[in-house]
Specification:
Radius of gyration: 38 Å
Strand order of the largest sheet: 1-23-19-18-22-2
Protein name: HlyD family secretion protein
Mean pLDDT: 82
Low-confidence stretches: 135-149
Number of strands: 23
GO molecular function: efflux transmembrane transporter activity
Organism: Oceanobacillus polygoni
Helix content: 25-40%
Number of helices: 5
Largest sheet: 6 strands, mixed
Keywords: Coiled coil
């Protein structure tokens, strides 16, 4: 009989204690939460990335034509797949009328020379022009109008300087193109006068000969630009999130290189529209290359990594330490407190805590089902983690004894 009474009394004792705790609405019974596993918030640069396959594509192509009213086609000087530079010969033809062609070329040369002089004058005037400022230091809005120049300065000196530099760069590029055209015309004049009937058409572009029309259908020659960009595809959901100018990285496995770029264009129209299929939207990544330029060929497959969002120096926790949108903080007072948080970026198993937790705070993880708000917590004694520094605190003995007694 006595043997039966002991288990019954123990069960009754435990049951009464559970009942007292359950009915303790006023918090008179002190609660203790056992924390077996905890973690610490830390700092981390968080970056949310989108990974997409892609392919290199030529930036564009240029066309070269033949006017059979000027003469009779003679021969191509290039082949498909051949690299050409500006000024390289593309094809030759025999003129119908020597004197008419000579006069035509001379007129073209005079016209281009006049355009070159006007551009040089515009550049000179812009370089000499001083942006005026009033007594307060704010430049006036000024409009310069010449034959080939019309520029209205903005209201800030910084913007005005940038606009001035942009104008100079654009005009110098235009000047370079006009000089190349003049050189081509002069070369054709020299050749015509030397042969009496033959003219060579030179390439105004740099690139790869992608197509020759031997039947002389226009365009007789197509030149593919040597510059390439990466092209990929987005789903409907990804298209909503994508914006131009986002940072992207392009990995070209064929030559083992990575290129930094930006999203240059995101199509507003899908490749095709079908009710039963998800719409796909093309996008382009532009990048600058130097040493690898000759190795990058259209058709090479690439991996594109797009930075969607980033938070540098973020306060983070591992995902297992967050319960819905709250954490269990371990306070300096030896209590455990449930704290609501605001989530930020979520990358792999790490979550940014935008609000609710500071860096370096201890967070209880397990066993979470037995945690109670504002209860004192106890943790297991981990002797393996004790070092000489653990006893450097003058009050270490007091804390040690208190910890033992609390168990």
């Amino acid at each position: 009989m006595r043997k039966r009474m002991v288990p019954m009394l123990m069960a009754l004792f435990i049951g009464v204690n559970f009942l007292l705790v359950f009915l303790d609405d006023e918090g008179k019974v002190e609660r203790t939460s056992y924390v077996n596993e905890w973690t610490k918030s830390f700092e981390k640069d968080m970056t949310e990335k989108l990974y997409k396959p892609g392919v290199l594509h030529a930036v564009g192509e240029e066309h070269v034509y033949f006017d059979n009213q000027l003469g009779s086609f003679q021969q191509f000087l290039v082949e498909e797949g051949e690299q050409v530079n500006v000024g390289d010969g593309l094809y030759t033809y025999l003129v119908h009328d020597y004197y008419e062609m000579e006069a035509n070329l001379m007129n073209q040369a005079d016209q281009i020379q006049g355009e070159i002089s006007a551009i040089e004058q515009a550049i000179s005037q812009m370089e000499m022009y001083q942006i005026p400022s009033d007594e307060l230091g704010s430049p006036h809005a000024v409009t310069i109008t010449e034959e080939l120049i019309e520029v209205e300065y903005p209201q800030t000196s910084i913007d005005a300087d940038l606009l001035k530099e942009q104008f100079r760069v654009e005009k110098e590029l235009e000047l370079s193109q006009k000089n190349a055209q003049l050189q081509t015309i002069n070369n054709q004049l020299v050749e015509l006068r030397a042969t009496g009937d033959t003219i060579t058409v030179e390439s105004p572009y740099e690139g790869t000969i992608s197509q020759l029309h031997v039947n002389l259908d226009d365009p007789v020659i197509t030149i593919q630009n040597n510059d390439v960009l990466a092209v990929g595809e987005l789903t409907e959901q990804e298209r909503v999130q994508m914006e131009e100018r986002r940072v992207a990285e392009v990995a070209v496995h064929e030559i083992g290189t990575r290129l930094d770029g930006v999203i240059e264009e995101v199509s507003k129209s899908p490749t095709e529209i079908e009710i039963a299929k998800e719409s796909i939207y093309p996008f382009q990544v532009a990048f600058e290359v130097e040493d690898e330029a000759d190795e990058l060929l259209p058709g090479y497959h690439v991996d594109i990594v797009i930075t969607m969002e980033e938070s540098l120096g973020a306060t983070v926790l591992f995902e297992e330490a967050i319960f819905t949108d709250a954490v269990w903080k371990m306070t300096n007072e030896g209590k455990i407190a449930k704290e609501n948080i605001e989530r930020g970026l979520h990358v792999d198993e790490v979550v940014e805590v935008a609000d609710g937790v500071e860096q370096g705070e201890f967070i209880a993880v397990k066993p979470s089902n037995f945690f109670q708000h504002d209860a004192h917590f106890i943790t297991p004694l981990r002797t393996k983690q004790l070092t000489g520094e653990s006893f450097s605190d003058a009050n270490w003995l007091e804390h040690f004894v208190t910890g033992l007694l609390s168990r």
